[in-house]
Amino acid sequence: MERKIINIKGLDVLVFKKDIKNFHLSVLPPDGTVRVSVPGNVSDDAIKLFVIKKYNWIKKHIKSFQEQERQTKREYVSGESHYFKGRRYILKINYANKPKIEIRNKKYIYFYVPKFYTLQQRQNYYEKWLRKELRKELEILVPKWENIIGVKVNEFRIRKMKTKWGTCNPNAKRIWINLELIKKPGEYLEYVIVHELVHLLERKHNKRFKKMLDKYLPKWKTYSRRLNKFIL
Fold it and tell me: Nearest CA to 181 among 161, 210, 198?
């Protein structure tokens, strides 16, 4: 696989030449990095022409990423806003001998922490709780969709990822789910699970892949579009 950067009309475009048949264009969060995957025998002039034709679409998506409000760095103090399963909660810190997290009144996340806990310890415990909650969801949703689609994974794992909501290793029959999805509405998590499970049947994002998504999750395009507006 060949990788290089080509400047096209002021845009630095990351180009990957692969053993594929079609062009694939992506504008990636958080800053709108432009990435193009092309067949190995395609010339730079052909790549430039392709990007120029998509220039307005690319600029629109870059602008969308740049205009999104960035989440401030978490300090895990009372009054902070935290999202969980698509709902906004206010964090309330209480001191206790042992750490614990509770959700109350669909409005507050009560975070009990020892007084000596540092910021890093608060973050570690909070993310451990998020992982536990996400795993609960996955233990229900993955088997559900395995039965519907007719596939079986050897395992699923949770990972903090910077550019992807999920990924699949078809050879190992393993899927990875981004920890951030536990903060989003449930339909987005379900979409990512279906997306990755379908990759066990079709590795590429081709017509066959999209046809299967249409079959199993007719609103997948809406979920994909909305999900990709979020900053990771």
Answer: 161
